[in-house]
Amino acid sequence: MMFIHPAVVLDLSANGVGIIHTLARKGIDVYAFDTEGPYSKGKSRLARCAVCPCPLTQEEELLSFLIQTSESLDHKPVLYAGADDYVVFISKYRRELSSYYLFLYPDHSTIMDLLDKKRTYELAVQHHVPTAKTFFIEDEQQLDEAIAQLEFPCILKPVFGHEFRKHVNKKAIHIENADMLKEVYPAYRAFGELIIQEIIPGDNQCFYKIATFFDENMRLLALFTLQKNHQFPVQFGTGAHIVSRRIPELVEEGLPLLKALNLKGIGMIEYKKDPRDGRYKLIEINPRFWLTHSLTGASGVDFAYFYYLHLTGHHPAPSLQQTDGVQWIYLVRYFLTFLEKRKNGGMSVKDFLDGFRGKKVFALLALDDPMPFIRSTLSHLKNAWKKNRRSE
């Protein structure tokens, strides 16, 4: 098959590199851009990479940059985004960008709702979807009222995670008791609105995801479910070791919600299964490609490739059946997770090695594109060493 449309990928984290690997190995020309920091760590030899203006602080410059990039190409490129900042930017300027790029997103209001954890919680309540017990705090009185109803430990989370992580590189803050909450809340509140949630019990294997690709008319083109085995950091982290698994009850839970939200394009819901009542509790919804999406290709439902085929008029047949038991491994994070869990007996050397059995795909490790893996590994190990030094 000949591919005349190039692809433009905004993001050079592991998420974006996964998109690059998928498309480039199919023979598609890929151009990849990110801001200076991620670019230096994620530059890939399988794409033509460069630094681009920041979507948060240089909107006009980024818009001009993308228009000029498209005008320099012979055919309209397919536009991919691997991070929330780029999704918001593309959605905000969709009218201007649609003349130069091919992409598919839900309504802008839907995207903003899903990036707002407060609004996502309200949507979950509206659609009768179980969630963790959640508190929204506007002042000190409401903080005291929440403390009276909370069970500790609990977690403190930003309402807008993609903006909060520009200042604090944490998905959530573990709160041991009421005194700690009162002490740290004002400091973290300076970086954005916060919510307080109960901690749903259960280990990393209680986390599940359902991912979908709906076309413009909400026809389901691709479906995928997975289970998390390990994450890094262990308490509140992102995927380190994931397995593809067909979970019919998760599909029954997730599909109606995604349809009700009219989430066309790529969508993903993360749940945690609560061992107290056996119910799947909603964690978050993302209107974009997610970190472990490259697992879908190895499992027979290639989301990044399907997205390209559909937008370039190749009309792929729906792919709703996946191969079970394929593992996705972010090697350095998996290793650091093992070191962390081994301290309290939660993981043995045998457990770690058993994680490599069977069919697998690596997040970054690639003989035809070694530098993203090398740079990411060195960066993770350096950060882990610094953290250990501070705790000594």
Automatic annotation (TrEMBL):
Recorded superkingdom: Bacteria
Entries under PROSITE patterns matching the protein: ATP_GRASP
Keywords: ATP-binding, Nucleotide-binding
InterPro entries on file: ATP-grasp, ATP_grasp_subdomain_1, CPAse_ATP-bd
Domain ATP-grasp residue range list: 121-312
A Pfam entry, by short name: CPSase_L_D2
Protein name per its UniProtKB record: Carbamoyl-phosphate synthase
Organism name: Halobacillus kuroshimensis
